[in-house]
Amino acid sequence: FAGLFPPLTSYAENINVNYGYFVDSTNSHILGYVKESAIFRSVDDPKDIPWQLGKKSYWIKMDVENMGADHRHLSLYFDTPMIDRLNIYQFASEGQEVKRWHLGDSVQKGYTQVDMPPAVPLTLDGFESSTIYLQVYSTGIPVMPIWLLNAHEFHVLTQLLHAVWGGFIAIMLLVAVYNLAVFLSLKERVYLVYSGYVLTALVQLGAVHGFGIYLFPPAVQTFFSNNIVALTFGLFLQALLFAHLYLRVHKVQSLLRQV
Question: Considering the entire predicted model, what is its pTM?
Answer without folding.
Answer: 0.84
